[in-house]
Amino acid sequence: MENIYSDQKKLIKHLKKGNTAAYSYLVDHYYIKLCDYAKNLARDDYRSEDIVQNVIVRMWQQREKLNQNISIKGYLFKSVYNEFIDQYRKDIAITALEKKYIEGLDSVLEEEDFDKSERLVAMVMKTIEHLPPKCKETFLLNKKEGLTYIEIAEFQNVSVNTVEKQIGKAIRIVRETLKDKISTILFLLLKLSPKKNHL
């Protein structure tokens, strides 16, 4: 079987047809190599495997679009690099967003009276209660329980990328729901005392 799929064009041809044996060969032949490459980029074993799994699964899902003349090795390594860059950019965006809110805590506390602050916190918590179940659970595990993205991923048996998306979704929903009451997010962050995530 390996002799058949060692030919790039034949491998791609069988992949495009949905041949699971070809997919298994691809995983067996490239997975470890791709993980080693991803580790050099991400410096994180867990995230490295997550990156590679995303790339391989996505390639299988989009197999019909594969170009017959590409180099599978080059395609996979480039895809791993692109996936790493995408995740890195998302990390920066989420971190910058939370940092912006946290930096405004002091000024908000000076401007808002205690009673109003309590009402604002209640509004935020009510909004959180109406989040989609998995989104709510993920958000509270991070913000209330202080679990890191990696710890949440292990607890829920999902990828770190999935955790990031759920928390980002929760933040967007709360912001959109409260709109002009954006300062409530600051009280939320203070009230729940989140731990800083280390990915």
Distance between the termini: 39 Å
- Counting DSSP E segments of at least 2 residues, the number of strands comes to 0
Radius of gyration: 22 Å
Domain module count:
2
Shape: elongated
CATH H level, superfamily name of the largest domain: Winged helix-like DNA-binding domain superfamily/Winged helix DNA-binding domain
What is the H/E order?
A: HHHHHHHHHHH
The amount of helix comes to: over 70%
Give the topology, please.
Blueprint: H1 2-5, H2 8-16, H3 20-42, H4 45-61, H5 72-103, H6 105-111, H7 114-129, H8 133-143, H9 149-156, H10 160-178, H11 183-192
Please provide a written account of the structure.
α3 packs antiparallel against α4 and α4 (45-61) packs across α5 (72-103). The longest helix is centred in the middle third of the chain and has 32 residues, at 72-103. It contains eleven helices and no strands. The protein is 78% helix and 0% strand. It is mainly α and 199 residues long. It is elongated, with a radius of gyration of 22 Å. It folds into two domains: 2-87, Rna Polymerase Sigma Factor, Chain: A; 104-192, Orthogonal Bundle (Arc Repressor Mutant, subunit A), CATH 1.10.10.
Descriptive tags:
disordered C terminus; Arc Repressor Mutant, subunit A; mainly alpha; elongated; 78% helix; Rna Polymerase Sigma Factor, Chain: A; 199 residues
Characterize this entry briefly.
The chain is mostly helical.
